[in-house]
Amino acid sequence: xxxxxxxxxxxxxxEQVITNKWFEDKIETQGEWIVSRTGISExxxxxxxxxxxxxxxxxxxxxxxxxxxxxxxxxxxIIVATTTADQVxxxxxxxxxxxxxxxNTGCIDLMAACAGFVYGIILAKGLIASGTHxxxxxxxxxxxxxxxxFSDRTSCILFGDAAGVALxxxxxxxxxxxxxxxxxxxxxxxxxxxxxxxxxxxxxxxxNGKIHQNGxxxxxxxxxxxxxxxxxxxxxxxxxxxxxxxxxxxxxxxxIIEAVATAINYPxxxxxxxxxxxxxxxxxxxxxxxxxxxxxGKVKMGDKAVLLGFGGGLTYAGVIVEI
Length: 323
What we know:
Number of domains: 2
CATH class of the largest domain: Alpha Beta
Radius of gyration: 19 Å
Strand content: 25-35%
CATH topology of the largest domain: Peroxisomal Thiolase, Chain A, domain 1
Distance between the termini: 20 Å
């Protein structure tokens, strides 16, 4: 069986910086309270005329500039994980294909909220292993600011816009190891965004095209379940916690990351994050955290890392990779 490896990672964030002070002028809140509850000091918002496909393209431009020896014309599959697409169709992946004029590539968008990027990595591994594809771009990109309810003081402070991208290629040695995935759809109405159906799991929901979240329920579910899933990932890969160099948990809230680190007795300094300066960027948060750490010289070749995303569904996906 052919193995797969992540051979390059990059990201893009919009130029517009939104500090906590910005919210103080709009809702009843204080910057210190936001930091204490979330760990977020600032985030980025896309410009009015800047959309998710634009962020995808910028991230791919960055990975090409940082890896000049990598040609893009032979990319044969593009996966974009997003819940904030410019439109339902065409797909964001096809927008990327068209921009770079890639001649022979399959394109799909994947909707798994904040777990989307890791689901994309798992799917890309399968395509490589099957022998049908040899070079895959996996992109996680969001413009959450365009879908945020700024009258909801508990959730509007969380979200930011960004894109992250990974290149997946064949390898003689496994670089993407065994994974875990799962869903608890009973919590579908605890984190949702709808413009159509008014009912989820038999309950009336708000149909306004904005993100709605039951923060307490999601927090409790994430801490309990993600702690367990890290240990399950280690078990299916025959590893111990000490074998890991890094854990990259979806940057939903720094307090969740701290609680998970405490629950599994893992050093917080080895939990890579993007939450502090970029907020919750959903499917982009994991590749963004990886890219930030790589550019800071933290991660090195041969390091082992857990990638674990969780979000609306409620769904999760985790995998161990060798950097």
